[in-house]
Amino acid sequence: MVNSADAVVSNTSMSGTSSLLFRVLKTIGSIAITMLGLLLVTFIIGRVMPIDPVISIVGERATKEVYDAAYLEMGLDKPVLVQFLYYLSDVLRGDFGISYLNGAPVAEDIRRVFPATLELATIGTLIGVIVGVPLGIVAAVKRDTWIDQVARVVALVGYSMPIFWLGLIGLLVFYGILGWVGGPGRVGIFYVDVVPSVTGMILIDSALDGQWDIFRDAISHIILPASILGYYSLAYISRMTRSFMLEQLNAEYITTARVKGLSEWAVVWRHAFGNIKVQLITVIALSYAGLLEGSVLTEIIFSWPGIGSYITTALLSADMNAVLGGTVVVGLVFVCLNVLSDLLYSFYDPRAK
Amino acid sequence: MQKLISSMLQTTLLRNAGRRRVLQKFAIAAVAPILLAVPMQQVQAATPKDMLVIASRIDDITTFDPAQSFEFSGSDVIRNVYGRLVNFNPADLDAGYEPELADSWTVSEDGKTITFTISEGKKFHSGNPVTAEDVEFSLRRAVLLEKTPSFILTQFGFNKDNVEQTIKADGNTVSIVTDKKYATSFVLNCLTATIGAIVDKKTVMANEVDGDMGNEWLRTNSAGSGAYKVVSWKANESVTLQANEDFHLGAPAMKRVIVRHIQESATQRLLLTKGDIDIARNLNPEDIAGISDNGDLKIHDELRGRLMYLSFNQKHPILSKPKVVEAMKYLIDYQGMQDSFLKGQYTIHQNFLPATYLGAIDDKPYSLNIAKAKELLAEAGVGEFEIEAGVREAQERIEIAQTMQNNLAQVGITLKITVGTAKQILTRYRARELDMYVGAWGPDYPDPQTNAGTFAFNPDNSDEAKATGLLAYRNAWSPGALGEKTSLAVTEGDVDKRRQMYEEIQREFLQVAPFAIMFQKIEQAGMAKSVSNLVLGGAITAASYWPVTK
Amino acid sequence: MNQENILQPHRTGLRSWLTADVPTSRAQARASAWYHGWLEFKTNRLALLGLCILIALVLIAIFAPLLSPHDPLAQQLSNRLQPLGSPGHILGTDSLGRDILSRMIYGSRITFYIVGLVVLIAPVAGLLVGTVAGYVGGWADTILMRITDIFLAFPRLVLALAFVAALGAGIENAVLAIALTAWPPYARIARAETLTIRSSDYISAVKLQGAGAFRIITRHIWPLCIASLIVRITLDMAGIILAAAGLGFLGLGARPPSPEWGAMIAEGRRFILDHWWVATMPGLAIFTVSLAFNLLGDGLRDLLDPKSHGK
Q1: Residue pair B283/B514 in contact by the 8 Å Cβ criterion
Q2: Across the strands, what pairs with B106?
Q3: How far apart are CA A54 and CA B102, in angstroms?
């Protein structure tokens, strides 16, 4: 999980005096360099991986002729750097190549799997925010009381749980025994392929289409994995909220405000909370990015066809086009969210001005 | 604390009516999913009467083009979508191949030419009639595309340059000319394989892109004459098939078949017991045991063609000693594994031809015998040593390796188990780098040659030969005279003689080969009581959905 | 706020030496600082609990051969999947008839081994990169921080998976893979600390005395970065354990038959419906260790992190 320090620190390197244009250019430049590096590292990993990518295409039993033809077709006879440049030029034209595993264009695959992860991570983050922020505030206000301790334990338990194990047990209890939630997958089997895909997110698509039974079914499927991710995210968000709030509540201006006779409510809500909003958004953004990339195991447990399990499967089969494509997308989202929170910081944080 | 919260709430409620509405909405949004989720259990009921829902692992599918498809799940789909010249009747698999799109066939005097008469009145899904021209196109196409399974046809001498002459339509007949005389049963058995599927030439060519003979289009679409057509395929998610009302054996009872990818056995079982699916195909022995007393469900057992084996690399200085290989065969706890973690799903089988194949024998000379193994190792003059086993990441194989490790330790052999993904381990196996391999092998087509040609055939054992497709090569084993016998057996026209030849080959193989074949697979499918007539294809073919009723 | 209570104990013997208002030696000052820290730490009961659990687990790991009732590798196929509380097997047996309790006890060794190695590698690497980048500045800073960003932007588990897949499964490779994904945040923290320390009068004074960059970084900057790093490490520990278990779960951790907890869950998940304890017990073990680390880390943060302190 990412720590707020990461964002906070990179922020300090950004000079507050430079012009907006320069800053935007610099940001774009650094995104580009980061992405390029990301691609290069992934590509190298793919090449040093002791898995023969040709097998993924031709299968275990191909004859030598078929194998050799595929080897040449994949350009594996060329130097690695040349292969990388070819790949790069394709990517810049928006072509991520063909997935060796299922023969479909990677871009098409990503369009299918990314919304699934997005949907899951969004609901997970929502749960994390709705529960985590109030929990953190209460813990800070009631510092060192039993309430604080309970909040602390709730959060740390969330932090400490092996997510794949919690998923297994959750599935067993809430689906297997109690039958309260839908099973693995995004919707019940009868509803597969029924809703026209507009956004790729079933909740939105079914709502757009007015198919409320499918919407309900999708909710019953997403609620458990999203809650598990949400629990993890609330652990982080509530701890950070508490920490930020404490910093504010200990500040002199709060004491001044109290002395002035402002109500406790006004002190906590309007002053302290008002001042941590930006920091909080940063934390939430990072936690969101963390869920987008970190839901691999949850996706595997819940047969959720998201980008995490997509990259993992591809990686383990040396389907490098799919791995590269998936990594680029996840990396890009991560970098963008990071930059976004940095920008927010420098615009709204009084200290950055 | 409570005071604070209530005062917080009061202040918000009183001071800010606008915010209150927002808060209310927020609360509803937060709670609604939970409220909605609770009554879900009532919604779940049995699957619709005319829909068959199957849970299976289908992440191996890469294409539905029969000229290219070479995976288990793909062959299940293609068997239900495409007709072939000759095919198996699911109601009587033991009968062998029977006419399907061909009414009859004749073999020339020299045994090299087989002429098929195409049956009249059968139609593709498009409504086009099935003609000799379609047959010619389909078989030529399979050779011309040169995809992985093409060897099933090209082993008869067909190639890019000669298909115009060797595969030819004439009126309502098609004749194929092989490079030498082969057992007719061998040729026809190969035509029942996935690659023998007949595609609709007009439809396919209408969807050709850049001279690919419709390869890309057929990847996700279908143009067959079988009981079903492909509606959709989402990789790693699901395959949906729609019944062909004009199927020549009559419209199937199941109007829609959905195969859904479910990785976990436990999940498949949960779905099955809840009635969300009709059939679960990957239940492990414990989950089978768990549903065995469920009155709404039943278990269907079928012997399949897949074999589980251990192999020993002959490049290894110690493993290449015949006595050591023999000792290894006595260090496997066949019975113990069959009765524990493989219970009900694998049966002891020690020969390379699966039971029900022509020439299959049932000899089981080996069993766990540590003392005997010690004796053999002593005779070979071998002390303690260490070997590395490559095992793909699959629990039952890892457990086989661990029981082996346990037994080997008792005779002073250290087994280092390297676990990796299928592709990773396979890469090293093909490069002949593994000392020991825990493998599984499924036949490619229902003729003894499919296994004989890989276990007992390896004409050039040099590293330069790169015959990585052959199991014997991967273990650096040169079968010598056995290989020649194998080549002879494919040309034997007399079925009884041919059977005898395979029996002999296997008996010798059992003694000398660095392969310890251990088990043959029994597929156990859990299904709703109401489902009947499902046939998974035995050892020779794939599943048939059209006879299923429920 | 507890300061006054702490400063008024009976001033006799060791304690009075430790709590002396005016330390007479460097050692006493240092010991005194630690002692005061300990006194404050002691008031945080949850953190204390975490520490106790960890000490107990370390002891279990050390004395595994004495504590475990069976050989963790001994198989008995005829005695597999025994339930909780079976005679001789309190936590039952696994798929190959091995005693689960013994495997869990031995598994603690693997867990501590992994955590220990990662902690030796990742923070050190991060410290090196961060302080060099922060102190040298300019191009070195830009390049090093870009590299850090690249690794930060990488999906964590994917990077670890790729690395293990490339080098082959095994504990050492799992350790390297996790370290590879864990160092960037340390580099960021170390750089930030360095930036603040670099411009301080104290460093200028050392510079004037003629100290070189190497000496300044190793002697004067590193010691000052350590406190914030330690907090971060303790909080990361749980993450490391979970990552290691995740790799084990995906079959890329320790080689069989090692009783690695993640791998044990992976083995047991097949039986989750009828033999739930096979996967549940190692899950609880992982949970306990990572919770203990989190409790401890959270307590340490309260102690060392000025942000959450009253000034």
Answers
A1: no
A2: B115
A3: 37
Q: Distance, in angstroms, between B194 CA and closest chain A CA?
A: 15
pLDDT above 70 covers a percentage of chain A that reads 91
Q: How many CB atoms lie within 10 A of CB C284?
A: 15
Chain A adjacent subunits, 3+ CB pairs under 8 A = B, C
Binned at pLDDT 50, 70 and 90, residue C5 comes out as: very low
pLDDT tens profile C128-169:
998 898 888 888 888 888 888 888 877 777 788 888 877 777
* Every domain range in chain B assigned CATH 3.90.76.10: 81-197
What is the distance between the alpha carbons of residues B343 and C103, in angstroms, rounded to a whole number? 24
The CA distance from B193 to B443, in Å, is 10
Lookup result for tokens 């300044």: C216
State whether C154 and A331 contact (CB < 8 Å): yes
Matching CATH number, C45-309, of 3.40.640.10, 1.10.340.30, 3.40.50.2300, 1.10.3720.10: 1.10.3720.10
First to last CA, chain B: 61
Q: Which amino acid is at B296?
A: D
First to last CA, chain C: 10
* Nearest C-alpha neighbor of C298 from the set A127, A131, A238: A238
| Lowest-confidence region among A245-254, A303-312, C92-101 | A245-254
Give me the architecture of the B81-197 domain, per CATH: Alpha-Beta Complex (3.90)
ipTM of this model? 0.78
For A49, which of C151, C166, C188 is closest by C-beta distance? C166
Find chain B residues with C-beta within 8 A of A112's C-beta: 234
Residue B527 has pLDDT above 90, yes or no: yes
Residues of chain B with CATH 3.10.105.10: 3-22+303-522
> Which of C81, C95, C272 is the closest to B266 by Cβ?
C272
Closest CB to C307: pick one of A50, A243, A293: A243
For residue B256, the surrounding DSSP H or E stretch is strand B256-261
CB distance B325 to B469 below 8 Å: no
Mean pLDDT of C68-83: 89
CATH superfamily of the domain spanning A109-352 = MetI-like (1.10.3720.10)
Degrees, nearest 5: CA angle B460-B462-B463 = 130
Nearest-by-Cβ selection for B419 from C75, C97, C169 = C169
Cα of C275 to nearest chain B Cα, Å: 9
Chain A residues in contact with C294 (beta carbon < 8 A):
156, 159-160
Window A:206-265, CB contacts with B under 8 Å: 213, 216-217, 219-220, 223, 263-265
Kindly report, residue by residue over B320-341, the tens digit of the pLDDT: 999 999 999 999 999 999 999 9
Higher pLDDT: A226 or A70? It is A226
Q: At residue A254, what is the residue type?
A: I
Residue B504 distance to chain A (closest CA, Å):
26
Name the residue among B295, B447, B301, B315 with its Cα closest to residue B387. Answer: B315
How far is Cα C178 from Cα C170, in angstroms, rounded to an integer?
12
- Joined together, the tokens standing for residue A258 give 């109290």
Beta strands in B78-147 (DSSP E): 86-87, 98-99, 102-107, 113-118
Residue A192 per-residue DSSP state:
T
CA distance linking residue C302 with residue C37, whole number of Å: 11
- pLDDT for A349: 56
Q: Which chains touch B (3 or more CB pairs under 8 A)?
A: A, C
Distance from CA of B148 to the nearest CA of C (A): 26
Q: Tell me the CATH number of domain B3-22+303-522, given options 3.10.50.30, 3.10.105.10, 3.90.650.10, 3.40.50.300.
A: 3.10.105.10
Residue recorded with tokens 């990488």: C154
At residue A36, the pLDDT reads 86
Per-residue DSSP letter, C79: G
